[in-house]
Amino acid sequence: MRLRLVVTTGVSSTLLATSPLFAQVPLPIADNSFLIEEAYNQEAGVVQHIGTFSRADGGDAWDFSFTQEWPLGGIQHQLSFTLPVQNEAGLGTGVGDVGLNYRYQLAGNDSAVLHVAPRFTVLLPTGSEPNGRGVGSAGFQGNLPLSYVLGPAIATHLNAGLTLIPDDAGSATTTGFNLGASAIWRVRRAVNLMLEAIWLSTESAGAGGTVREESAFLNPGVRWAFDFPGGLQIVPGLAYTIGLGPSSGDDAVFLYLSFEHPFKR
Asked: First and final CA of the chain: distance in angstroms?
């Protein structure tokens, strides 16, 4: 399974916190999804470190990514980077194309039910294209996440995005599209059940021209939180990704782990 079109940039995990630093936030659900981007930027003075790991069933290929998010003075502006490490069967392990991300909190605050936070990403050609870990050219990506709180225990999240590679493999301009949605249910104070769905349309360049492929995935999962003195919050998560339609059989185990803590008082 490959979901590399979507650069996951996480969001502030205010839902499950109980420390005084977060006690003023009334949002019932505001943590990272796994495949879907939620529209909550980091709070002032709080940094988040996010790791994800996906391994396909019945194969040796796997993907790991590390994202680190920093607020620029407050919730309105956020910078982050995403560092992927990938293993392709028979082609070895290495770094993929790194993403440098900026997000703007267009709508939403601590008391709002609607949040919108468009993201712009520059993709650096740091991965090896011959070994299947990159496209061999710089690229650009935009994603529009929208989050809506339906009630004290349920939130929904919608994504729509575009990826543009001006010189894919040195031969053509290619485009990719992504659509996704998720529903998150807070079954207990520190436990969430999650259901995500994502559709991808990716284009790749080669000697014979460009080829477009479509894929779709369903991702049921669970996440929970541990809160520690000083504002540290650790959120593990687990999901099982199910391929749908043309992606049938591309199932995978998905693991998630984030650390969020203040970097200033």
From this structure: 42
